[in-house]
C-alpha cells in the first residue's frame, strides 16, 4: 500500500503521542495528552503519514498569529515581518527513517504554505560535527536568519524559506482557492473553531 499523508483525527492522538515521546530528546520535547490536544485545536496543519493502516509519522505547523506558547515560535513572530507558517515539529518512527518520508512531508507542507503564506519557517538545533537536519533543510533552500538559545549549552538555527509562488497565487486567487484535494484546505476542526471565535489563533 502506498504512503498516505492526511489530516490527523482526534482519536489518533494517542498514537501521535507515542511517536512523539519515543523520539523525545534535545530537539523534540516530550508532550502529554492535554498539550497534544491543544496542538490539535490550535495547529493549522496537523497531518500524519500512514502506510498499511499504521501511522508512523506526523508534522505539526502553526500560522503566524496562533496562540502558541513555543519560545521559538515567538522568536519568529518578533523577527519576521511577513505572515508565515511555522513548522513546530516533524517526527518519523525510527524504523521508517531514511526512506524519504521527511521529503514527502516537506513537499506537502510547502504546497500548503505556498498557497497561503509568503514564508515557511522552522528551527534546527545546532550540534557538533555533521548536522543531518541542517543539510536536509539546506538542500530544500531554507536559509538561516538568526540563532536562538535553547538552554545554557544549546542554540537553534532559525530557518526560513520564501514561498516564491505565493504572490502570484494570492494575486490570482486571493482567498478563493479552488476546491481540489491537492490544494489541502485547512483542517475542518480548525476552521470551525476560528469561525466561531473559540480557536487558539
TrEMBL record:
The record's annotation in InterPro entries points to: Acyl_CoA_acyltransferase (IPR016181), GNAT_dom (IPR000182), UCP028520 (IPR016890)
> Could you tell me the superkingdom of the organism this chain comes from?
Bacteria
Residue ranges of the TM segments: none
The record ties this protein, via Pfam families, to:
Acetyltransf_1
Chain ranges of the N-acetyltransferase domain: 3-164
SUPFAM superfamilies reported for this sequence: Acyl-CoA N-acyltransferases (Nat) (SSF55729)
Any coiled-coil ranges, and where?
none
* The protein's name in its UniProt record: GNAT family N-acetyltransferase
Q: Which organism is it from?
A: Lysobacter soyae
